[in-house]
Specification:
By secondary structure, the protein is mostly helical. It has a single domain, classed as FAD/NAD(P)-binding domain, CATH 3.50.50. Helices cover 53% and strands 12% of the residues. It contains four helices and three strands. Helix 1 links the parallel strand 1 and strand 2. Helix 3 runs antiparallel to helix 4.
C-alpha cells in the first residue's frame, strides 16, 4: 500500500494529525506499537485523572458532614477504582479506533525508530 503520510505513534498529536491529513485528502497510516491513543490516553494522563477523581470523591465523602449531609460506612475498593480507570482508558482508545476507521486511516502494528 502506498501512503502520502505515515505517522509514528497514535498519541494526541499523532491521531489528530492523521485525521486532519485524511480530511485534506491524503492517504494516511499510523504506526502504533501498543493501544491507540498512545501513552497519555492509555497509561498516563487519562487513567491518572480517573484515579485522582476517585480519590477526590472519596475525600468528599469523608467530609460529607461539612456539606450538611450524613453518610455511614464510607470505604474504598481499590480493585474497583483501578477497574474504573482502565475502563475509561479502554473506552477512549476504542473511540480513537472508531475515528481511524471513520477517516480511513490504516493502523500498522509496529514502531519507528
Amino acid at each position: 500500500m502506498k501512503y502520502d503520510i505515515i505517522i509514528i505513534g497514535s498519541g494526541p498529536g499523532g491521531y489528530v494529525t492523521g485525521i486532519r491529513a485524511s480530511q485534506l485528502g491524503f492517504k494516511v497510516a499510523i504506526v502504533e506499537k501498543e493501544s491507540l491513543g498512545g501513552i497519555c490516553l492509555n497509561w498516563g494522563c487519562i487513567p491518572t485523572k480517573a484515579l485522582l477523581k476517585s480519590a477526590q470523591v472519596y475525600d468528599y465523602l469523608k467530609h460529607v458532614d461539612e456539606y450538611g449531609l450524613k453518610a455511614e460506612a464510607i470505604d474504598k475498593d481499590f480493585d474497583a477504582v483501578i477497574k474504573r480507570s482502565r475502563g475509561i482508558a479502554d473506552g477512549m482508545s476504542k473511540g480513537v479506533s472508531f475515528l481511524m476507521k471513520k477517516n480511513k486511516i490504516d493502523i500498522i502494528d509496529g514502531f519507528g525508530k
